[in-house]
Write a structure and sequence with these properties.
34% of the residues lie in helices and 30% in strands. The chain contains four helices and ten strands; from the N terminus they run βββαβαβββββαβα. The chain has helices spanning 36-49, 66-84, 134-147, 161-180; strands spanning 5-11, 15-22, 29-32, 52-59, 93-100, 103-110, 116-120, 127-128, 131-132, 150-157. Helix 1 (36-49) runs parallel beside helix 4 and helix 2 (66-84) runs parallel beside helix 3.
Length: 199
């Protein structure tokens, strides 16, 4: 069975990002982005998707976290697209409501080759510590665009911004895991009447 792993390096004047991942991993995470809360969220993404991820980023954090977070999303998305290849034998679709304390968030995914993000999440505060909550959307937009997935994320309710962000990452992780699982009934087929999931 073909390996579903990939490495991507991305360098601009604003950031230098390297990502190595294995879709068929165990959720082993090594994160070093220089943004503590973001590392915590990426740990959740890896652990709950069972995608091994090793991510190193150096960005212009003296300005703010924006470029580092967005460019990491781009690089992870590119690595996922590369690792998925022709997207043969995958389940393709998944959706999940994920609870954490007072918060409930839904994620739904179509590993379609068509990038799209629907984001229905509002945060009660603009910051989680020093982290801008608006960057959560920026990350998932960059990931969806570059992985070639349709992703819908809706926060049904919640009072704590940390919990809301964490449920977004965990819910997306779980639907990534479910949608990328191998389908034993059609292990070599592309799950599309078009015969292609490349967009």
């Amino acid at each position: 069975m073909a390996s579903r792993s990939a490495k991507v390096s991305r360098k601009t004047k604003e950031t230098g990002i390297s990502v190595a991942l294995d879709i068929d991993g165990t959720g082993k995470a090594e994160m070093a982005t220089g943004v503590g809360f973001f590392d915590h969220m990426l740990d959740q993404l890896s652990r709950h998707s069972l995608i091994d991820m090793k991510i190193a980023a150096k960005g212009d954090l003296h300005i703010d976290d924006h470029h580092t977070v967005e460019d990491t999303g781009i690089a992870i998305g590119q690595a996922l697209a590369k690792a998925m290849g022709e997207r043969r034998g995958i389940m393709r679709y998944a959706s999940l409501d994920l609870a954490m304390d007072e918060t409930l968030t839904r994620a739904a995914i179509d590993v379609s080759g068509r990038p799209y993000l629907v984001w229905n999440v509002a945060f009660p505060s603009q910051k989680i510590g020093t982290f801008d909550t608006e960057l959560v959307r920026e990350f998932f937009h960059a990931l969806a665009q570059n992985a070639g997935v349709t992703l819908h994320v809706t926060n049904h309710y919640g009072a704590n911004s940390h919990h809301i962000a964490e449920t977004c990452f965990k819910a997306v992780a779980r639907v990534l895991r479910a949608s990328l699982e191998r389908d034993p009934r059609q292990p070599d087929a592309v799950p599309s009447t078009k015969g292609s999931l490349k967009g």
